[in-house]
Amino acid sequence: MARRFPLMLTTVIVLALVALALLIGAAWGLWAPLPARLEGFLIALAGGALIVSIMSELVERAAPHIPWLVLAASLIAGAGAFVLLDKFVKRKLGAESGGGLLVSVTLDGIPENLALGVALIGASGLEVAALAGSIFLSNLPEAAGGAKGMLDDGYSKTKVFAIWTATALLLSFAALLGYLALDQASEQVLGPIRVFAAGVVAASLAIEVFPKAYAQDSYATGFAVAIGLVAAQGLGQLAG
Predict the structure, then answer these.
(1) Is the pLDDT of residue 98 over 80?
(2) DSSP 194-239
(3) What is the mean pLDDT of the chain?
(4) What confidence tens digit (pLDDT) does each residue in 6-54 have?
(5) What is the pTM of this model?
(6) Cα 63 to Cα 118: distance, rounded to the nearest angstrom
(7) Residues 227, 230, 233, 239: is their CA dihedral positive or negative?
(8) What is the predicted pLDDT for the residue at 240?
(9) Residue by residue, what is the 3-state secondary structure of the chain?
């Protein structure tokens, strides 16, 4: 129990920081909207970091413990799940509506934060820092855009911020659930779950993150992605 307490404390701190990004992003979108190019740059930066993170913290950690065919099937299944959910949300709520962005962030964020919770199992703070940091960066502009869109849809600032606060709590709970429910699971069980979550995040990068970043920041997106890759790789080496 004494050894478990520091791990739980690290988990709570990491989850609080990730949730805080949604609140900061929502407040930024409501009261001080980001310039479009800066928002695009931050989105691309986070996307670059996530590429490294999903490979090092999820796929590579799972690979030694599960057959390659299971790994491939889990990755493709995760990507397929995101594609279907994303298509459903856009068909029902509209691709650019504030509500659509909120649901998209929530549906994307639940497996993303479950992945964060699973990544915390058996890892030090530094080992998970790249994944937590890149999720933090990606949450900022997504929340800013979603909050601003909901404001444009006619919601009051108070109501919008309350909705995003509830979303932050929900996603934090998802990460905590992933950590607690699977803390004692074997690597053979954790492996497909890690890779499924990686597939979800990979699909979100391809469909949501990089196209939006390029639309807002054009060719500077390439540099931002590279900076994100370097930053995440540096954190990974520091952890190693």
Answers:
(1) no
(2) HHHHHHHHHHHIIIIIHHHHHHHHTTHHHHHHHHHHHHHHHHHHHH
(3) 78
(4) 556 667 777 787 788 889 988 988 898 778 788 788 878 878 888 887 8
(5) 0.77
(6) 15
(7) negative
(8) 56
(9) CCCHHHHHHHHHHHHHHHHHHHHHHHHHHHHCCCCHHHHHHHHHHHHHHHHHHHHHHHHHHHHHHCCHHHHHHHHHHHHHHHHHHHHHHHHHHCCCCHHHHHHHHHHHHHHHHHHHHHHHCCCCHHHHHHHHHHHHHHHHHHHHHHHHHHHHCCCCHHHHHHHHHHHHHHHHHHHHHHHHHCCCCCHHHHHHHHHHHHHHHHHHHHHHHHHHHHHHHCCHHHHHHHHHHHHHHHHHHHHC
Q: Which of 3-7, 11-15, 82-86 has the lowest mean pLDDT?
A: 3-7
**Measured distance CA(16)–CA(166) in Å, rounded:** 13
Tokens 């407040």, located at residue: 27
Which domain, by its residues, includes 60? 4-239
Task: Show the tokens assigned to 167.
Answer: 């979303």
Sign of CA dihedral 66, 67, 68, 74: negative
Angle value at C-alpha 172, between 233 and 43, nearest 5 degrees = 45
**Residue 175 amino acid letter:** A
Q: In this structure, what token pair is assigned to residue 212?
A: 């939006």
Residue 186 DSSP one-character state: -
Q: Looking at the predicted structure, is the pLDDT value of residue 2 above 50?
A: no
Between the CA of residue 183 and those of 79, 117, 118, what are the distances in Å? Answer: 24, 9, 8
